[in-house]
Inverse folding.
């Protein structure tokens, strides 16, 4: 494997990182929005969200990606590989995030919410000042876990031609007839990133448990 | 719509893909559960010479993307002299990967088990593998059912990744139908609905096991 | 030390009027045709066996529970329904709730805010008072309930009695026209009950208009202008405390008081003024 090959894999890593980053940044607030819709029981929308989340959590990412990439142009919406990839990743992670947020919202103590109502806070204020600061802290381990899962599914982007770490490794392996070395380079990039996030998750879990024990 | 009629005409291929997905997932689940149960034993043992390497393996599988692992098993192993066809490679990758996850899940459920029934088992003379099989495992599986159920859904979804090594499972079938008839929407939506149905069936199964567990609490 | 009872027909509109209020949970009727008037400066104690609907009635006053029928008026203004006959939206409801304070059985303090922040939150964010002014008022309220040194503590570090005193200060910070107490001492260890009752009694003496749901009979006898006795969702008897506790008019009230007499040896008076812990 030449340095040029390694460089190609690193370029793939940049692609992986940036696409994951975008999907994470979009998926977090989107998941919250979906969860709030169900929590507030908004008529018509809430059951739709329930079905949407259920389907997305059951759909393999590769199937979703192929669907978006091939079907959208077919019904008149032009979409490229990168956009399809970001869309698929975001839809997927937002559905899982929704469940994490929802668990936090459902377990929020009712009497704190009523106290906020009783002093005359409006819905937006109740959410912003009382509910979210606490729910965000409680959901942090689950949300960080979802981030690690998202990074682990990014190789699927190769299926529509996005050159991420895995696809770069596969291509080099095909060219050099030595598939293992580039895979190990890819591993060497994935492992520390995911491991770092897993450690972050364990850290937040421990700090949360300690805070609750007080 | 007309497209869905085309899908219906190709239902044999689609159902074969669905069947392969089910067979593959089922086989991997059973294998991973059996090996994972033994793995949980290893994770709970006090002998670090056994526990630490396996724990390292579990942590590694936790950090590796499944698709990359599947590629390594399929493309990489031949260079070590081990030639596997896509079915064996796919099944092996799914099994090994999920053995680690099942072991961790069962270990987590194990430490949450009440100690008394386990100790009572020893007091009544159960030992070793017999003790594990008859005293520890049944309540363990019942209490871990929801998390194991989630992992089974994950296995079904991971099986779709194996389309990249040309394994004729459901996504591969949908892909092939869409490329031949240019009906991507109908083909993939059908696949999505079939995955969703599989998932609902698994969740119903888990709920049923939950009711059995409740009755025996 | 009883508060002076306002003369009947003193010409002032009642602070709170409840008319023909009814509420059912699924098929279970919890409140039936409740009528109640509270005048300025009065302290009403709602007494009754568990399940009689006392807490539900209280929560219907500030519409934390929505009544099925009937009307609630705060100083003549209808709560919950606009003049057009439409259910009030969140904004209008919130505006009314700023004028009613509530103290909860389990304190309901916000754990991520300090004691001072708990008290200041609504004045600053809802009434939009300048922070410095809100802080000064919060400090003085905190002093009046004897917890000045806890201003920067988080609720988790406080005892139950301290939390409830903060809860009272938080409700007072909004300068409400009416204060509602939902079993304020029921969740407290017995030795902490007294410190809270002292605060509530002083509020009564200072002329605050209050409706208190409680099981503390001694406190009710001492601090209430009027006792409203509920049983199975209806107002069974309304009387002055010296009448109610000595010679109740109805059989159900008599049974209720009998049970109270029998249930425990009368404990030493716990709401004697004492220094704050």
């Amino acid at each position: 494997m030449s340095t040029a090959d390694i460089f190609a894999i690193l370029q793939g890593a940049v692609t992986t990182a940036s696409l994951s980053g975008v999907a994470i940044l979009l998926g977090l607030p989107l998941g919250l929005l979906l969860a709030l819709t169900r929590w507030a029981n908004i008529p018509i929308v809430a059951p739709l969200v329930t079905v949407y989340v259920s389907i997305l959590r059951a759909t393999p990412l590769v199937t979703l990606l192929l669907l978006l990439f091939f079907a959208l142009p077919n019904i008149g919406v032009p979409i490229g590989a990168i956009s399809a990839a970001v869309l698929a990743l975001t839809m997927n992670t937002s559905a899982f995030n929704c469940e994490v947020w929802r668990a936090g919202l459902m377990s929020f103590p009712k009497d704190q919410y009523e106290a906020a109502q009783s002093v005359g806070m409006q819905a937006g204020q109740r959410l912003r000042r009382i509910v979210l600061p606490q729910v965000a802290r409680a959901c942090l381990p689950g949300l960080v876990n979802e981030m690690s899962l998202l990074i682990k599914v990014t190789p699927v982007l190769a299926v529509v031609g996005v050159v991420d770490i895995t696809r770069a490794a596969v291509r080099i392996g095909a060219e050099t007839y030595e598939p293992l070395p580039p895979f190990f380079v890819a591993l060497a990039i994935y492992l520390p990133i995911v491991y770092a996030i897993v450690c972050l998750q364990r850290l937040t879990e421990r700090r949360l448990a300690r805070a609750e024990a007080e | 719509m007309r497209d869905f009629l085309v899908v219906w005409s190709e239902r044999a291929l689609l159902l074969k893909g669905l069947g392969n997905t089910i067979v593959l997932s089922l086989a991997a689940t059973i294998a991973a559960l059996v090996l994972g149960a033994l793995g949980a034993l290893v994770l709970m043992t006090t002998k670090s010479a056994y526990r630490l390497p396996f724990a390292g393996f579990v942590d590694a599988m936790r950090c590796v993307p499944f698709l990359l692992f599947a590629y390594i098993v399929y493309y990489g192993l031949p260079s070590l002299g081990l030639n596997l066809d896509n079915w064996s490679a796919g099944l092996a990758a799914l099994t090994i990967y999920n053995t680690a996850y099942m072991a961790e899940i069962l270990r987590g459920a194990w430490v949450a088990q009440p100690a008394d029934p386990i100790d009572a088992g020893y007091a009544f003379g159960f030992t070793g593998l017999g003790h594990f099989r008859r005293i520890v495992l049944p309540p363990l599986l019942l209490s871990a059912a929801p998390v194991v159920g989630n992992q089974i859904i994950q296995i079904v979804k991971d099986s779709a990744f194996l389309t990249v090594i040309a394994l004729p499972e459901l996504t591969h079938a949908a892909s092939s139908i869409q490329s031949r008839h240019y009906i991507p929407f109908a083909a993939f939506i059908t696949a999505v609905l079939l995955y969703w149905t599989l998932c609902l069936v698994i969740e119903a199964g888990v709920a049923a096991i939950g009711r059995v567990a409740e009755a025996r609490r | 030390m009883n508060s002076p009872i306002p003369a009947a027909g003193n010409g002032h509109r009642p602070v709170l009027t409840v008319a023909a209020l009814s509420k059912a949970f699924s098929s279970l009727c919890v409140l039936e045709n409740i009528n109640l008037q509270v005048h300025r400066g009065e302290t009403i104690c709602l007494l009754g066996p568990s399940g009689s609907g006392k807490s539900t009635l209280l929560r219907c006053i500030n519409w934390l529970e929505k009544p099925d029928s009937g009307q609630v008026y705060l100083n003549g203004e209808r709560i919950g329904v606009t003049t057009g006959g439409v259910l009030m939206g969140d904004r209008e409801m919130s505006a009314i709730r700023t004028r009613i304070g509530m103290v909860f059985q389990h304190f309901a303090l916000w754990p991520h805010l300090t004691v001072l922040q708990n008290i200041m939150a609504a004045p600053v964010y809802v009434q939009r008072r300048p922070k410095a002014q809100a802080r000064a008022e919060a400090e003085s309220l905190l002093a009046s309930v004897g917890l000045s040194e806890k201003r920067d503590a988080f609720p988790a570090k406080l005892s139950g009695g301290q939390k409830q005193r903060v809860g009272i200060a938080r409700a007072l910070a909004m300068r409400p026209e009416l204060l509602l107490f939902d079993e304020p001492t029921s969740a407290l260890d017995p030795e902490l009950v007294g410190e809270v009752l002292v605060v509530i009694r002083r509020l009564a003496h200072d002329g605050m208009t209050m409706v208190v749901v409680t099981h503390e009979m001694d406190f009710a006898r001492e601090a209430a202008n009027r006792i409203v006795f509920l049983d199975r969702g209806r107002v069974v008897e309304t009387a002055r405390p010296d009448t109610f506790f000595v010679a109740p008019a109805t059989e159900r009230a008599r049974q209720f008081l009998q049970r109270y007499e029998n249930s425990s040896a009368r404990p030493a008076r716990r709401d004697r003024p004492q220094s704050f812990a």
